[in-house]
Design brief:
Keywords: Disulfide bond, Signal. It holds the Pfam family Lectin_C. This is Lectin subunit alpha. By secondary structure, the chain is an alpha+beta fold. The protein has one domain: Mannose-Binding Protein A, subunit A (Mannose-Binding Protein A, Chain A). About 35% of the residues lie in helices and about 25% in strands. The protein contains four helices and nine strands. Strands 1, 2, 3, 4, 5, 6, 7, 8 and 9 form a nine-stranded mixed β-sheet that branches. The longest helix is centred in the N-terminal third of the chain and has 25 residues. It starts with a helix and ends with a helix.
């Protein structure tokens, strides 16, 4: 009887701890959920593209992939919620694309897919002044359009993660 009580106590504590961690993650600032994705936006601290990728990986996320108009609309909704509500322009944020493997053939790093959908700012990509602009960011003019940029420039970033079954069911219940 004593051993089973001890085991029950340990299990209960583990469940409570897990719940507290999950609640803490969900209450984290700069986290947004829409559709089947959770997004993390880091607008203040500045990173190179590689550092931004590494920061997303630390969160078990990836730099955002915007490979369809539907996904672009989801990301735009999240960005509007995060910035326009505060009457602030969208800052420059790295996304998960580059042409590091083959010059001017931009790919989504999460899938290795060449761009089929694009949302370039007018005149982009342009490798401005031949500055080796191989990475991509949004927020060039305070909006969700894309711009090519040198990967060593420091900007914020936006990460994404597909929601798990539990998180999806929570969204359905709330709706």
């Amino acid at each position: 009887m004593k051993a089973s009580s001890c085991l029950a106590y340990l299990i209960l504590n583990a469940l409570l701890w897990h719940g507290a961690v999950a609640e803490e993650e969900d209450s984290e600032t700069n986290v947004y959920k829409t559709g089947t994705y959770k997004y993390f936006i880091e607008p203040k601290n500045q990173y190179t593209w590689q550092q931004a990728l590494d920061e997303c990986k630390k969160k078990k996320m990836s730099l955002v992939t915007i490979d369809s108009e539907e996904k672009a609309n989801d990301v735009k909704t999240v960005l509007n919620e995060a910035f326009l509500f505060l009457k602030k322009p969208i800052p420059r944020l790295y996304i998960g694309a580059n042409d590091l493997d083959e010059f001017r053939e931009f790919i989504w790093i999460s899938k290795g897919d060449v761009f089929r959908y694009t949302n370039w700012e007018k005149g982009e990509p342009n490798n401005y002044k031949k500055l080796n602009e191989r990475c991509v960011h949004i927020g060039f003019h305070g909006d969700e359009k894309w711009n090519d940029i040198n990967c060593s420039r420091k900007y914020g970033f936006i990460c994404e993660q597909v929601l798990g079954v539990e998180e999806l069911s929570e969204l359905v219940v709330k709706a």
